[in-house]
């Protein structure tokens, strides 16, 4: 029993020592700056009406949240050093259509990393209990599991961005045709965009609604369109925003520009389908060559071998 527990005790002692070391380093490194000391006294009063003010989300465990908030902020700061900067994360969240803040996304990354570390630790203990403890490989397994959790959270956001952009690219030709019909009927560009945003359903109509909110706030429509294109990251939507902005500045017929944009997007979608079909054809050759063709050869050759064996 002592031989079995000695590696486990060494591993637990190592983890506990690392935890104590992190606590000591964190306590020494976390010092209040002058700005943090003066912020409560110099905080400006919010003159917004209480009816219009957003209510903060209350945690069911406020004491635990207050105790863990500084540590979560430190871990999020470490993640910013390892991963993308804060502005890039904000841009990716906007492209994904997420209402999360950067801090909430960092907290989700912390949760996924801790889940990966927990799963890696459980797997390491299981392997150590069955095959013996080797501290360095098992510790490496735990670290790799935590890194996989961190990467998986980032990949989930990337997959969400890709799926949303695919939906927007599929919706764009219909939206462009609706805008062309509304402009041809005599409506102004802003009115046509409002009509499309209220009648259509989808990711692109939501983005158009955000763009119209910026226009109502005083932004020029060309600037709002360019900001929407930058926020989504779609090349077709970028060309659409630039074309509409140029048409509004130079007075060219807007309906023709919208129809041309819709036709270009349809052609791009048709080319993408042809490319996907070509890739699928190549992928279909793998089971044909390695599965179906050998079975066909066996069925064709086996009767001849059986006949030769009977003749011999």
From TrEMBL:
InterPro entries: T2SS_GspF_dom (IPR018076). Residues 177-301 form the Type II secretion system protein GspF domain. The keyword Iron-sulfur does not apply. Signal peptide: none annotated. One of its GO terms (cellular component) is plasma membrane. Keywords: Cell membrane, Membrane, Transmembrane, Transmembrane helix. It holds the Pfam family T2SSF. Coiled coil: none annotated. The chain crosses the membrane at residues 6-27, 110-129, 135-157, 282-306. Its main location: membrane. It is a multi-pass membrane protein. It is found in: Cell membrane. This is Pilus assembly protein TadB. It comes from Xylanimonas oleitrophica. The lineage of its organism: Bacteria, Bacillati, Actinomycetota, Actinomycetes, Micrococcales.
């Amino acid at each position: 029993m002592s031989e079995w527990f000695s590696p486990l005790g060494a591993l637990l002692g190592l983890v506990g020592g690392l935890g104590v070391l992190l606590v000591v380093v964190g306590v020494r490194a976390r010092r209040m700056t002058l700005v943090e000391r003066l912020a409560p006294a110099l905080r400006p009063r919010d003159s917004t009406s209480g009816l219009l003010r957003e209510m903060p989300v209350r945690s069911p465990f406020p004491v635990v949240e207050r105790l863990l908030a500084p540590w979560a902020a430190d871990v999020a700061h470490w993640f910013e050093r390892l991963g993308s900067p804060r502005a890039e994360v904000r841009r990716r969240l906007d492209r994904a259509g997420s209402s999360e803040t950067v801090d909430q996304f960092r907290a989700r990354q912390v949760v996924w990393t801790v889940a990966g570390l927990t799963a890696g630790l459980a797997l390491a203990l299981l392997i150590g209990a069955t095959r013996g403890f080797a501290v360095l490989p098992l510790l490496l397994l735990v670290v790799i599991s935590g890194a996989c959790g961190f990467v998986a959270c980032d990949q989930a956001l990337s997959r969400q961005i890709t799926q949303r952009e695919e939906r927007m690219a599929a919706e764009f030709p219909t939206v462009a045709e609706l805008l062309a019909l509304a402009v041809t009927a005599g409506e102004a560009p802003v009115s046509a965009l409002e009509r499309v945003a209220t009648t259509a359903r989808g990711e692109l109509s939501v983005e158009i609604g955000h763009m119209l909110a910026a226009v109502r706030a005083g932004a020029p429509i060309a600037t709002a369109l360019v900001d929407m294109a930058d926020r989504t990251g779609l090349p077709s939507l970028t060309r659409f925003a630039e074309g509409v902005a140029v048409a509004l500045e130079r007075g060219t017929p807007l309906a023709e520009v919208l129809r041309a944009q819709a036709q270009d997007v349809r052609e791009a979608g048709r080319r993408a389908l042809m490319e996907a079909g070509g890739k699928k054809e190549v992928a279909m050759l793998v089971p044909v060559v390695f599965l179906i063709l050998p079975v066909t050869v066996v069925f064709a050759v086996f009767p001849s071998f059986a006949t030769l064996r009977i003749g011999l």
